[in-house]
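A quick aside before the break. I want you to see a complete sequence-to-structure record at least once, exactly as it would be stored in a machine-readable document. Don't worry about memorizing anything.
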Amino acid sequence: MSFLPENYKVPNPGNNYMKLEQGENIFRILSDAILGWEWWTSEVIDGKEVRKPNRVAEEEGIPVEEVDDEQLPKHFWAMVVWNYQEKKVQILELTQRTIQKAIIALQKSKGWGDPKNYDISITKTGEKMETRYSVMPIPPKPPEEEIKKKYEAMTINLEALYRGDDPFSKENTE
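That is the input. The structure line, written in tokens, reads:
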């Protein structure tokens, strides 16, 4: 036996966003998704270059005059999820077309349907341009009571992402 468990990770209590890590990532979708376009820009704040995301709702279209030629906008989905690894409610943003297509296929299939009714496992392998994702549904079951209680106790406004605001902030959830 080693000093720490084999798969130990230092918890990150302040992170409200799920990031797909190498290996298996299991989550339960808790909300409907918002859809849109995302691109990144740089600003100089207090003498430091800071990159920030810009998002618009899908139906608004992309303001081409604001987009940097080096980074084309990506279509994104953002949704509230239960991240089993972190054991917390977080926002997951998906821009990877392979993942989006797999979840659309699951939703359209008679055997799976609404992805809020089952857990999803996304396995990430490779790095940079060699990154690959595989998506697997996990047999349907109701979410655990703990998950439902934690989600219901929170107020999250995904629409705040379109304004560049914090969806967890009290000002953006009232």
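Two observations worth writing down. The chain has a mean pLDDT of 90. The helical segments are 97-108, 145-152, 160-163, 170-173. We'll return to this after the break.
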